[in-house]
Amino acid sequence: MLYTRKGDNGTTKTFGCDQRISKSSAIAEALGSLDEINSFLGLVKIKSIGVIFHLEIGEIILADIINRIQQDLFIVQAELAGADKKIDEQKVEWLEGIIDGIEKKLPPIKTFFVSGGTELATLCDISRTIARRAERRVVGVSEEIELNKDETKKSINKNTLAYLNRLSSILYAFARMVNLNDGITEETPKYD
Description:
The protein is mainly α. Helix content is 59%, strand content 6%. The protein has one domain: Up-down Bundle (Hypothetical Protein Ta1238, Chain: A).
């Protein structure tokens, strides 16, 4: 069934919770932002088919990495919705390993860069900004739980917060690496 009419009054339910919540609540905002980044990563994945990064740590097939990130984001969404699912430390370390491998190939960052270059790099940059918004929304939920000492809600796992923080970093690394692979020189802001 694609619709139930139960949300017509501006409320929704999360996994494992019988109580309806406002669609404008912090948890609904966080879940919506996570859904948005996951959906946008689907576009990035399709556009990145055939893109391979040759790093010291080995060959990185970008579409496969994006797919794994999408799967991990479902774990984050499930955790926020109340399921007994959590991002573990190994998933954070996996992201860090890829980021570190890409960083070794890139010129050092000395300034900001204007988004662009290739279509795929730009899509990675857009996904980075969506990921940052999703992270801010999840941090907001985490702070709300801690501030209200709400014992009916579980604290957000520290690895989940770390994973979301690394997510924007890896997407930035992907944008830069895609441009490097395609011989595109990064444009810096002129501030004039």
